[in-house]
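Journal club side-thread
Mid-discussion, someone asked how the predicted structure for our own chain would compare to the paper's figures. Pasting it here so we can look after the session.
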Amino acid sequence: MHVGEIIHKVRKDRQVTLVELSSRSGVALATLSRIENGKMTGTLDSHMRIAEALQISLPDLYRNLNMSKKELEIHTKKTKTDVFMRDKDASSEMLATKVAGKKMMPVLIKLNRSGSTRREETRLGVEKFIYVLDGKVEAGIGDEKYTLAKGDTLYFESSVPHQFRNLITGQSRLISVTCPPTI
């Protein structure tokens, strides 16, 4: 069952018309129709407003939500993923396949002693989240420098030029999630 089917069922059970739900939630009538018909999923914000208008909690709205098989992807240590080597001291491993068709791009970045990523920047509207798994890195974001250690996170607009550099003699590992994906 997709989120639109759940919204439709709750709306019908509560005897609320699409027009009434649009008025109560502030979500456009056409958008509601597309969501209910599975043409689009909507946003978290629209889901929160719809749930509030239907007087249910967001977890209740998502309770019977099933992922389709095409949305489910499992990788194990035996699974082959794409690895991009900058040089012997820096590599990036894609943690999902076919990222061009996905909403986010998870990457494992490994930086050996003296390793660093290339300085990069994306188009406007692309965001990046970094989680330090191991080690200590310097994150250069624009003209600013930040030191991040194991367990630290960073969230930023990735259209700003950025680069990551290992600060320890051992390996540092980062999870980078870019949304939407860019290559």
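Post-session note: The first helix runs from residue 3 to 13.
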